UniProtKB/TrEMBL annotation:
Domain ACT span(s) in chain numbering: 284-361
Keywords: Amino-acid biosynthesis, Aromatic amino acid biosynthesis, Coiled coil, Cytoplasm, Isomerase, Lyase, Multifunctional enzyme, Phenylalanine biosynthesis
Reactions the enzyme catalyzes: chorismate = prephenate; prephenate + H(+) = 3-phenylpyruvate + CO2 + H2O
Protein name: Bifunctional chorismate mutase/prephenate dehydratase
Chorismate mutase domain span: 1-96
Gene: pheA
PROSITE patterns in UniProt: ACT, CHORISMATE_MUT_2, PREPHENATE_DEHYDR_2, PREPHENATE_DEHYDR_3
Functional description taken from the UniProt entry: Catalyzes the Claisen rearrangement of chorismate to prephenate and the decarboxylation/dehydration of prephenate to phenylpyruvate.
Limits of the Prephenate dehydratase domain: 96-272
Coiled coil: 7-41
Pathway this chain belongs to: Amino-acid biosynthesis; L-phenylalanine biosynthesis; phenylpyruvate from prephenate: step 1/1; Metabolic intermediate biosynthesis; prephenate biosynthesis; prephenate from chorismate: step 1/1
Organism: Bacterioplanoides pacificum
Source organism phylogeny: Bacteria, Pseudomonadati, Pseudomonadota, Gammaproteobacteria, Oceanospirillales
Keyword presence, Lyase: yes
Pfam families: ACT (PF01842), CM_2 (PF01817), PDT (PF00800)
Amino acid sequence: MSEAQELEVLRNKIDSLDNEIHKLINERARCAQEVAEVKQKYAAPGEHVVFYRPEREAQVLRKVMARNEGPLADESMARLFREIMSQCLALEEPLNVAYLGPEGTFTQQAAVKHFGHAVQCAGQVSIADVFREVESGNANYGVVPVENSTEGVVTHTLDTFVHSNLNICGEVALRIHHHLLVRQDATESEIRRIYSHAQSLGQCRLWLDQNYPNVERIAVSSNAEAARRAALESGAAAIASEAAAELYDLVMKSAKIEDRPDNTTRFLIIGPQKTLSSGDDKTSILVSSRNQPGALYQVLEPFHQAGISMTRIESRPSASGTWNYVFFIDFEGHADDANIAPVLDNLRKISVDFKCLGSYPKAVL
């Protein structure tokens, strides 16, 4: 058999498989529509029907990765299924998602990574605006950054949770690559100022010290805003994403300039409803303790006694008084788990203030 004949056989096989995949995807979409019909059928009069279930999607994606036999990588296969689920969910209910904008930010990338491309994303000026959009009902969910592996916690996000009644419904871990972007006609000697978000400037501090030690660094509201300014101003550069470069017609003068190659930012999905257990979850809580000796020990000791693994603890000044602090704690497990519910009850008793910010599936992708 000749090369052309062998290729023809394989291409015919691919066409046949494509036909089957096409049929199965549409069959899955019709099933999703039936799910929506069943939910509406059994909903009480005036009840808000919830179509998006974070715990269900996490379970599906874990199954996809567990049964995958290659040659596609587990995460590649999961991303394909994420998009299929995104399109199917849009048939049940189109979702509106608010994110820290403008267009081209890493938060927008996190929103698309978590929800897929079928959602309607709306960029907001500030983290407070993202919370406000979800609280008002203008958006179904919001996406906000909470911590970076290099620069640490995003304090504004934590502080906003103190007065918000929204729940954490999910998390996204996004590998962050920063690029130095300039206009197409820019030259090396022309760069007199570099715009970026304060966190990004911090994540590239060593690289900037080595390559542009005497160039002014200007912090702006977002990397996308930095790219917008660099596109308009001569002598300006921006530290931003590849998406921002495409959006504002900039070129990458230097790629992947972050100081740590494993630079990762964690984002939270916020929404109005609580999330059921997915089987592999995290819980985030807010605890305000009394200003007395051993206060932090009293907060942490119940976790040790119950054998619960904490993944993060942060402290923030409390509005209730000078030198009083609020502790934000993440730990493994769901608030409804048999070994965790008693610990939370204990913390409610010993705390000045206690709030369960939400239990949610661990990031799958």
